[in-house]
UniProtKB/TrEMBL annotation:
It comes from Gracilibacillus caseinilyticus. This is Rhamnulokinase. InterPro entries: ATPase_NBD (IPR043129), FGGY_C (IPR018485), FGGY_N (IPR018484), Rhamnulokinase (IPR013449). Pfam families: FGGY_C, FGGY_N. PANTHER family: L-RHAMNULOKINASE, SUGAR KINASE.
Length: 490
């Protein structure tokens, strides 16, 4: 049976998944999982890229030790926007900044004095946000100029990791589309934006289409790991693009939700949708594995709960998934709501305190117990997705009848049910490892083992279980939605 390695690396953890294919069915096995958190140092947040690279090699060694020696290829997907800089000799110039770097807000405001948010959106079709690569670059130029002056090549995170394995420098299309530097509907970097911001226009490595073989694993890597050469494939390098590739979307009336630390919600489109309504609603256009686009909104996901867990563990009140469900069930419903995407929740010192402060300032009952806070978070997330669905129908001009949820957060069955209730739509949840599966099927297509994405999605539907959720308590949820809109000002 043929096998490939799919590295799916998110903003909270990374994993190596082994995908096997017998010609009829896909199989997935987790080989190794490791934590991945930004490191706070000298007032900045960085990614420990060498640690990630070392953990990836460790995972490959473990796979080989388990008897998986004949590996056809490997692919890497990660979160978007972040990047590493290389010198002219190919050396990494320091640890890459995290998109949560607090200076980015100041950098964005200064950059927008040279080119407006509307101009940027009209050129790229991408929502203006502090995390975008364009503003990170401008922030470096303003506050760490020597780093940019010594840079020869910019590689986005998954392509930087691929470079460390194969030595080839490319920026794959789907990850490039997150930067707000790619001209909408094209695959070329927009030099007008770079020049307007006085940024170097020659450091971004050229873009390449998804499903391309970047090269072979380096001999030094092969010797260290004890493996035969492996093809390094640029599958859909953005984890959301990989996740959507795996979802068995049925028709043009299906919505996708890629669910993890962030939740990306949208619909596939052939071309970027660029107008004032899309921009003012905060939607964006990013690439898909087919070289097309997805009209979507980047929303808060499990970050809120993840950060509350950090506080509770610090206070000796650690929770787990089962305990959180029990605590939620014991807490009163529809009591307090927050806007999950309020900037105050982006990276607060204490998420629990920030949620309580929001409720106090909006004259709502302040959640005090863990159960009340968990319910506040999950109900607010679900209601925000209901709000987004209405806008997505307007912007796309489509009647949207069902929602496909994939990704690690769908393990939280309560969130799936609440989302069905808040949206009034059937939820089809699965697969859980959506990004890793999408990564793998991209490789299988590139290797010629699977014909195309349509065949791949059919294989996914036949190979991995799906769960279905129907809307419940619609009258109560409609009333809750009105209060949610009132308290959040949406």
């Amino acid at each position: 049976m043929k096998k490939v390695w799919a590295f799916d690396i998110g903003a909270s953890n990374g994993r190596l998944m082994l995908s096997s294919f017998d010609g009829h069915k896909l199989y997935l096995e987790e080989i190794y999982r490791f934590a991945n958190q930004p490191v706070h140092l000298t007032g900045h947040y960085y990614w420990n890229i060498l640690y990630i690279f070392a953990e990836m090699k460790k995972a490959m060694q473990m796979s080989i030790q388990e008897g998986h020696r004949q590996i056809e290829s490997m692919g890497i997907d990660t979160w978007g926007v972040d990047f590493g800089l290389l010198s002219d000799t190919g050396e990494l110039l320091g640890n890459p900044y995290s998109y949560r770097n607090p200076l980015n807000e100041r950098g964005m405001q200064e950059a927008l004095q040279h080119i407006s948010a509307k101009e940027l959106f009209d050129i790229t079709g991408v929502e203006t946000a502090t995390i975008n690569t364009v503003f990170q670059l401008y922030t470096i130029k303003k506050y760490n100029p020597s780093l940019l002056e010594n840079a020869d090549t910019l590689l986005l995170t998954p392509n930087l990791l691929a470079y460390l394995f194969c030595g080839e420098k490319h920026n794959e299309f789907t990850i490039s589309s997150t930067t707000q530097l790619l001209r909408a509907g094209e695959t070329s970097w927009d030099k007008q934006i770079l020049q307007r911001l006085l940024l170097p226009d020659d450091i971004l490595a050229p873009t390449t289409a998804p499903l391309m073989v970047a090269g072979q694993s380096l001999s030094v890597v092969n010797r260290e790991i004890g493996m035969n050469p492996v093809k390094v494939i640029h599958t859909a390098s953005h984890d959301t693009a990989s996740a959507i590739a795996s979802l068995p979307l049925e028709d043009q009336q299906s919505v996708f939700m890629s669910c993890g630390t962030w939740v990306l919600m949208g619909v596939p489109v052939d071309r970027p949708v660029i107008n004032d309504d899309v921009m003012e609603s905060g939607f964006t256009n990013e690439g898909t594995i087919e070289g097309k686009y997805r009209l979507q909104k980047n929303n808060m996901g499990m970050w809120l709960l993840q950060q509350c867990r950090v506080i509770w563990e610090r206070e000796g009140m650690a929770t787990d998934f089962n305990k959180e469900n029990q605590l939620l069930e014991a807490a009163p419903a529809y009591r307090s709501f927050i806007n999950p995407d309020d900037p105050r929740f982006f990276n607060p010192l204490n998420m629990v305190t920030e949620i309580q402060r929001y409720c106090e300032e909006t004259a709502q009952p302040v959640p005090t117990s863990q159960g009340e806070i968990i319910r506040c978070i999950l109900e607010s997330l679900a209601l925000k997705y209901g709000w987004l669905l209405q806008r997505l129908e307007r912007l796309s001009g489509k009647e949207l009848k069902r929602i496909h949820m994939g990704g690690g957060a769908i393990r939280n069955q309560t969130l799936c049910q609440l989302t069905a209730n808040a949206t009034g739509r059937e939820i089809i949840a699965g697969p859980v490892e959506a990004s890793a599966i999408g990564n793998a099927i991209g490789q299988w297509i590139a290797l010629g083992e699977v014909k195309d994405l349509k065949e791949a999605r059919q294989l996914v539907g036949e190979s991995f279980p799906l769960q279905y959720y129907q809307p419940q308590e619609q009258i109560q949820w409609q009333e809750a939605y009105q209060r949610f809109v009132q308290y959040t000002g949406l």
